[in-house]
């Protein structure tokens, strides 16, 4: 990983406050390589029409490109069946789809929904609402001080029964990669469905969703170097069979009469209305670009750089990085003694360094960890050791100014 | 001075590190919880009135230097004033941190003028003010939204 890769990301040559940008916020959203921007531009200029409608040439080209992107996603998820890959607007919509459509059909009064306490609000709140509608019980799966789910407590919770277990592939707040395959097997032994939030876990290596044991797996395009406004929901065929349509409208029907409507087969069944066509094409291009770089090289690069980041943070006086569980995605969530993360973030910003500060949309996780907020530095394919060095130097400035 | 020097003036750092009137006030006549959804910061503001005048203001909570300093200075400045006077000060502070033209003499609060160069920090500076205003007007929950 080197300058040749960074050169493909025009956003990374930006100057902020008179300094070269140091991008340490990939976990919030990743910048896009020219391959993605070009693919969307070319599609808009040469192959744009509504998909699956019309017999004209541009409709044919647009449909081929859109369905080609679905094939890219299916390959990325571990050579799954393209029919099980549904495009959404993002992870949040994917998770809401499952809670609304599957949840409202299958949750009953007294059902138990087990959601990890470390999860993102978009994994918690849709199920909190679904549980409310059904009279079901929302139960938190606790985690340890290392930000690792407590599997003994989880096993005890499962003994009380569960309709569904909701857990991230990897934590956006602390970076832990969760033992999803093990947790899924345990959930399946009591007949629970397993919903996996892949927003963070999917972007550091192809997730192989079937081996992971997920029944539903959600991800966002914009964290995978693709555009915003596009996401994916994959489900096992039997899980899809249990899931009624979520949004109703054009594209998702077979036949409409005032006496009743029948629905198209999936994936169209879950893609009502005109989908984000160019965004899907951009996501497909991102996946092909990542494959071109090579996932083995990416994983090796990010693993090495994560160790470099964590070692570097350990040298910073008064700094504690939180959640020491392993394996982990390439991010560190940390606090500086006596200095609030927002103040850290503002000073770093003036040094050109972009980090995320706050509760990371995971307030229950922060609360259980006894924190209100942290500073999060996250790495990706474009990160270099110099980014980490800049962060450490920036934190010294923070300390001088505010310590 | 740099924008950061303007933001983190000595008065702000001092009040941020050692906030005044950060204490419980069990005998308050008005109290309100304030939330900044952006960062999760939470302050509880309690007020004790003496007739028309604000006799005492205290707050509880933790936040960034800007949020704590703003809460701290607010509790010092508004004491002895009436609710309409508080509302005037609120408008002036809000205009100041948003970089909008204001007509009022800001006195000590002028130190928050540096916030205007940091749009993402405006809500840090206004959380305690929003919360106190909501308390004085009878609400029990406020946000910076």
Detailed description of the structure:
The complex is a heterodimer of chains A (403) and B (145). Chain A has 403 residues and is of the alpha/beta class. Chain A has 3 domains: 3-30 and 294-402, Aspartate Aminotransferase, domain 1 (Alpha-Beta Complex), CATH 3.90.1150.10; 32-90 and 237-293, 3-Layer(aba) Sandwich (Aspartate Aminotransferase, domain 2), CATH 3.40.640; 91-220, 3-Layer(aba) Sandwich (Aspartate Aminotransferase, domain 2), CATH 3.40.640. Chain A has 14 helices and 17 strands. Chain A has helices spanning 3-6, 34-46, 57-76, 91-106, 121-134, 151-159, 180-188, 209-212, 237-241, 277-293, 295-314, 341-350, 363-368, 385-402; strands at 15-16, 19-20, 22-23, 85-88, 112-116, 137-141, 164-168, 193-197, 216-220, 231-235, 253-257, 260-263, 319-322, 331-336, 353-354, 356-358, 374-378. Chain A has a 7-stranded mixed β-sheet with strand order 4-10-9-8-7-5-6, sandwiched between helices. A 4-stranded antiparallel β-sheet of chain A has the order 13-14-17-16, with helices on one face. The radius of gyration of chain A is 22 Å and the shape is globular. Chain A starts with a helix and ends with a helix. The model of chain A has no long low-confidence stretch (mean pLDDT 96). With 145 residues, chain B is of the alpha+beta class. Chain B has a single domain (3-138), classed as Alpha-Beta Complex (Sufe protein. Chain: A), CATH 3.90.1010. Chain B is built from 5 helices and 4 strands, in the order H-H-E-E-E-H-H-H-E. Chain B has helices spanning 3-7, 10-17, 65-77, 83-98, 122-136; strands spanning 30-36, 41-50, 53-62, 141-143. In chain B, strands 3-2-1-4 form a 4-stranded mixed β-sheet, with helices on one face. In chain B, a hairpin with a 4-residue loop joins strand 1 and strand 2 (41-50). The mean pLDDT of chain B is 92. The interface between A and B is medium-sized, with 18 and 22 residues.
